[in-house]
Amino acid sequence: MLSWVGLNSPQWLTSPAWAMPAVILVYAWRNVGYAVVIFLAGLQGIARELYEAARVDGAGAWSRFWHITLPGLSPMMFFLVLTSTLTSFQAFDIIKTMTDGGPVNATNTLVYYLYEQGFIAFNAGKSGMAAVLLFGFMLVFTIMQMRHSERRVHYG
Fold it and tell me: Is 21 inside a domain boundary?
């Protein structure tokens, strides 16, 4: 499509500078439907009476959004941030399918390194250490996220 307007297309999967953004773009596109379903479920859980009371009190659309909708969706946002980040640590299938870790290891991640060491090079020691390291990263991230978001998530 870019050639229609006289622009060159980036080398999405052959350039080391564009390979990881291409993988991230595909990963985000793959998961946007899941996030939409979670947000729709969250929106249905917010009581309509809150919106009606705010409207009667004279609150505008932005005020209702900031003071009712966002606090009502905060548990869903917390869940999606946590699960999406943990899932991105484990992104293997898209990288294997699109780039096979290349070009020039530009899309080589810890999970892909674990796969290469364990199933291609048959180096169980390095593969096991990569798995322990991945677990440690995910554990530290989860603990930090739980402590940081505890004050910001409004339950019920």
Answer: yes
Q: What is the pLDDT of residues 66-100, one digit of tens each?
A: 999 999 999 999 999 999 999 998 889 999 999 99
Please tell me the predicted confidence (pLDDT) of residue 156: 58
**What is the spatial distance between Cα 95 and Cα 112, in angstroms, rounded to a whole number?**
8
Q: Are 147 and 133 in contact (CB under 8 A)?
A: no
Cα separation, 92 vs 116, in Å, equals 11
Does the residue 155 lie in any domain?
no
Average pLDDT of 40-62? 95
CATH number of the domain at 144, please.
Answer: 1.10.3720.10
Which residues, including other chains, have CB under 8 Å from residue 86's CB and lie 6 or more apart?
138, 141, 142
Helix, coil or strand: residue 8: coil
